[in-house]
Amino acid sequence: MALKSSIGATTPEPGCAGETACAAPNEVGALNSIGSFFATPFVVGQVRIPNRVVLAPMAGISNSAYRRHFKKHGVGLVVTEMVSAYGLIYQNRRTASYLDFSEEERPLAVQLFGDDPKVMRRAAELVLSRPVAPDLIDINMGCPVRKVVRSGAGAALLDDPDRAVAVAAAVVAAATATGVPVTVKLRSGVRMGEKTAVKLAPRLQQVGIAALTVHPRAAAQFYQGVADHSITAEVVKAVEVPVLASGDIRSFHSASEVVSLTGAAAVMVARGVAGDPWLVRSLLAGGVQGRPGLAESVRELRSLLAEAARDMGSARAARWIRRILGWYLKGARVPTPVIEELRRLPDAESLDEALVALLEDR
Ligand SMILES: Cc1cc2nc3c(=O)[nH]c(=O)nc-3n(C[C@H](O)[C@H](O)[C@H](O)COP(=O)(O)O)c2cc1C
Predict the structure, then answer these.
(1) Ramachandran area for residue 91 (φ above 0: left; ψ -120 to 50: alpha; else beta)
(2) Does any ligand 1 atom lie closer than 6 A to the CB of residue 116?
């Protein structure tokens, strides 16, 4: 099975319910051998993760309502969007609100970003001293956004491995007394062709990092191009701790292929489940489940909207869900102009009414 040939393929053949249903006959055996793998638990440090499908952190998207939504669909672990260590130590209210979560989200990781070991250590202490502390802390070493990289954080740490290791060690030092494991999510490197992750991984393990998530695109690629999971496989070989594979997990087929080629302990799902939470069930069930139609997409959106409005108020919820509407509705073949109209609605109430009307019009 050629890795690159099928990862990233998003267009199912006509008549197929999804990529898995279309697997070539000689691939079916390999897929079946993965079977119920995704539904089995694994352990990070002392934390038991009930299955091997992890919801990716996505800035601006993966808030508590989004995470709860995917928890209902069965993911084994959720991660907050990235939280600024400086924002926490300077007591920025909005930053602190990113740490809020509900018990039903457990196990949950808080993801921190920052460039300075001392600041990261203090931020981790603040996170862990809250009345409701997370189950894991994750460190962002992959964000390619200019503002983050310029400050020396995110993917910039890959260009300064000693600092990256010092940041990891500082957060581990803050967390050791609590028993909360610390993990790192990293890109393959800053520039195309670099394999910084492979060299850095053993050093991170050595200072006590309990798991690694590899997103094997260069930071320079942002979110374009194909994730090169041969690099994930090299990281798996280089360390003993669990490695999670992130990038281009879009179907049971691609998830199975990535796991069999890399030996990763779990997959992390991001854009592949955006608008298709049913994919989580497919992975857990060990095969394709098919995607429901418009009625179900609308039902999901209304439930997400109601949850978000409860957390953040009607107007903010309507603004937030604009980023997500298209993912659900395009998948259910709603025309783009209709989606654009929905995006202009100012509050949760009017948007909810319009979603109901969308079904009645059909
Ligand atoms: C809109 C968006 C926001 C993201 N925000 C974060 C983030 O806050 N922290 C992080 O580690 N990765 C972030 N990522 C990267 C994802 O977690 C994931 O690694 C990446 O999208 C690759 O997976 P995919 O190809 O399945 O989308 C973000 C990705 C997107 C598309």
Answers:
(1) left
(2) no
Regarding the beta carbon of 270 and ligand 1, being less than 6 Å apart is answered: yes
Q: How many CB atoms lie within 10 A of CB 8?
A: 13
DSSP helix/strand/coil, 210: coil
Regarding the beta carbon of 225 and ligand 1, being less than 6 Å apart is answered: no
Whether the CB of 57 sits within 6 Å of ligand 1: yes
pTM of the complete model beyond 0.85: yes
Work out which ligand 1 atom sits closest to the CA atom of 323. 1
Question: In which residue are the tokens 């080629």 written?
Answer: 261
* Rounded Cα distance, 69 and 47, in Å: 22
Q: Does 87 contact ligand 1 (Cβ within 6 A)?
A: no
Residue closest via CA to ligand 1's atom 4 equals 58
Neighbours of 309 (CB within 10 A): 22
Give the pLDDT score at 33. Answer: 64
Given a contact cutoff of 8 angstroms between Cβ atoms, the answer to whether 178 and 128 are in contact is: yes
Is residue 52 within 8 Å of 265, Cβ to Cβ? yes
pLDDT, tens only, 66-123: 999 999 999 999 999 999 999 999 999 999 999 999 999 999 999 999 999 999 999 9
**Catalytic residue check, 143:** yes
State the catalytic residue, choosing from 75, 112, 127, 143.
143
- Mutate which of 84, 271, 279, 322 to test ligand 1's pocket (most atoms within 8 Å of Cβ)? 271
Ligand 1 centroid to residue 326 C-alpha, Å: 17
Q: How many CA atoms lie within 13 A of 193 on its CB side?
A: 0
pLDDT of residue 2: 31
State how far the alpha carbon of 95 is from the alpha carbons of 9, 14, 52, 147, 199, in Å: 37, 46, 29, 16, 32
Indicate the pairing of strand 266-269 with strand 211-218.
unpaired
3-class SS of residue 228? coil
Look-up of token digits 């709860």: 68
